[in-house]
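User: Show me a protein chain along with its predicted structure.
Assistant: Here is one chain, sequence first, then structure tokens.
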Amino acid sequence: MVQTKKIGLFVVVVFVLYVIITDPAKAADYVQIGFEGVSTAAQSIGDFMTWVVNGGGN
């Protein structure tokens, strides 16, 4: 099981390096999309927590 995880991680790292080397602009776009997704998720969690603290009303 551990060996499978190591192989999977190696494949992912090789793929990421391949994308960065062959098309740096597209790799930068992927990173930006990822950060935007994390930012949106954090904003949504913050909005939910604010809603809960305010009593869950409209």
